[in-house]
Design goal:
The structure is a single chain. The chain is α+β, with helices and mostly antiparallel strands and 153 residues long. It has one domain. 25% of the residues lie in helices and 15% in strands. The chain contains 2 helices and 5 strands, in the order H-H-E-E-E-E-E. A hairpin with a 7-residue loop joins strand 3 and strand 4.
Length: 153
Amino acid sequence: MADGAGADDFSAFDDEEGRYWTVEAARAYLPRLRQLLTILRRAESIAAHARTNGHGKVPGLFRSDQDEAGGDLAADEVEPPPGIDPEAALAEIEDLGIVLRDPARGLVDFPALHPSGVEVLLCWRAGEEDLGWWHLPEDGFAGRRRLPWPREL
């Protein structure tokens, strides 16, 4: 996908209703997602700084370039394409059905369909080099399991 590609340029879904991502499509979308998350994280940082009237840091916001699991968040800071504001970045993520769980950590879920027909979530977080995790919707982040997924659920 080209750096300037947007939601209209990307076909990600493996069903006719357009609800589920394939592992391959989610992986292919990560470069674009990194750009969009950079826009959202920068906007959040600016807003947090503004809330302190420029005189300090907001506790807990971007404490360092590493998240609590040791992922390198700075590695995911990429130059976003020009002309995309935070609203447009968020709209693109939502339009593609990606669930933004935590903008500061860059935690997202891609709805997917296991071959057995069970709905699952492909889970990725900024700082992770590749999409390598999945979980059942009811298990959340704590229930993440490594890809590939088992044959049966």
